[in-house]
Amino acid sequence: MIHALLDTTQVIGTFEIDGATHEICAEAEATHDRRTNQLTISLRSFLRATQHDHMGETTTPAWLPAPQTVTEHVEVDEAHEMANDVFASWCHKVKGAIPG
Fold it and tell me: What is the pTM of this model?
């Protein structure tokens, strides 16, 4: 039986493109399979438009980390904490990729 553990997006910062502000976002979706004790975490990063006329539009510039999937074998009682730790590490990686 697969259970959803985490579905979150965190705004890491902002970035200007052609004078328009975009949010730099890190996202994670995590599930845990109790039969196999497999934790699967899908990670991605993207820019999200903040202007009303472009609301909901996203883009992924080459400087952002490529999407990743992390899989680990972990007991159910440790799965949520591990998913949170992996996401925190991902957020740090995304932050580090922001051009100076």
Answer: 0.91
